[in-house]
Specification:
The N and C termini lie far apart (35 Å). This protein has 8 helices and 7 strands. It has a 7-stranded parallel β-sheet with strand order 3-2-1-4-5-6-7, with helices on both faces. Helix 3 runs parallel beside helix 4 and helix 4 packs parallel to helix 6. It is α/β, with parallel strands linked by helices. Bound molecules: nicotinamide-adenine-dinucleotide. The site of nicotinamide-adenine-dinucleotide has 27 residues, from helix 1, strand 2 and helix 4.
Length: 245
């Protein structure tokens, strides 16, 4: 018996990185997973280690496309039980006075607007079925703020506030919404970073190592399951002791 037997999940940004790891865990635990992404060129089921039930190309920043894509998935599977809002971009690194206006709009549109659009499409469906688990991927940057990534930090802080509001709107229904706030995770991005940057990032984490994708997948899987019954609007820490709240 798997934790997610018979459940249908949508994982946004699921073609690679953390989203792919979350999808793999959900599939391993019995879920049918619908992967959403802008780009599946690099996705390969063998190396990802799981077979998605369906893939749908969609830009989470496009509210209309999100609604249509959600409705198509719901029709195909009869119901969507789990929504993992993971798609996100970092945007450029620049101080506020130099931050490009178009990049600000884009980061907010994807990292915060995308979460809103996906929840807006899923919530009526989940409410009607009186069941749903929504997990939004925020970041430690949303709690701490970090120089050079103001748009990202603002969007990720927004995701935390948004999730609290949504959870309170849904309290009393069978739909729970929570966040996770990871620190820097060991992904392919590391190959592009300097050794100094990697060392400085690690030094901020009391456990003195980086987060591994299976660790975040395990936490998301639990928050997306029927085992999570009395926690909503919360932000689960996954920072190796770095977060102080
Ligand atoms: N990697 C980290 O260290 C870290 C730390 C904290 C939080 N996060 C968050 O975790 C999430 C996943 O990060 P990752 O490192 O796996 O990133 P990634 O860049 O490896 O993967 C993100 C995926 O989202 C997709 N995507 C981007 N824009 C999209 C859009 N508009 N519509 C649909 N799909 C889109 C990309 O194509 C990609 O497949 C992000 O929200 C990120 O902010 C990452």
């Amino acid at each position: 018996m798997g934790l997610h037997d018979g459940r249908v999940a949508i994982v946004t940004g699921g073609a690679r990185g953390i989203g792919s790891g979350i999808a793999r865990r959900l599939v391993d635990e019995g879920a049918s997973v619908v992967l959403w992404d802008l780009d599946f060129a690099a996705f390969d089921a063998t190396s990802a280690g799981f077979e998605p039930a369906m893939t749908q190309r969609v830009d989470v920043a496009d509210a209309m496309a999100v609604q249509e894509t959600f409705d198509a998935a719901a029709r195909r599977f009869g119901g969507i039980d789990i929504l993992i809002n993971n798609a996100g971009i970092n945007g450029p690194v620049a101080h506020v006075e130099d931050y490009p206006l178009d990049a600000w709009q884009k980061v907010l549109a994807i990292d915060l607007g995308g979460v809103f659009h996906c929840c807006r499409a899923a919530v009526p469906h989940m409410r009607a079925r009186d069941y749903g688990r929504i997990v939004n991927v925020s970041s430690i940057a949303g709690k701490e703020g970090n120089p050079g990534i103001s748009a990202y930090a603002a969007a990720k802080a927004g995701v935390i506030g948004f999730t609290k509001s949504l959870a309170r709107e849904l309290a009393g229904t069978g739909v729970l919404a929570n966040c996770v706030a990871p620190v820097i995770t060991e992904t392919d991005l590391f190959k592009e970073m300097t050794a100094e940057h990697v060392a400085a990032s690690k030094a901020k984490i009391p456990m003195n190592r980086f987060l591994q994708i299976p660790e975040i997948a395990a936490m998301v899987s639990w928050a997306a399951s029927t085992e999570c019954t009395f926690t909503t609007g919360f932000t689960f820490d996954i920072s190796g002791g770095r977060a102080t709240y």
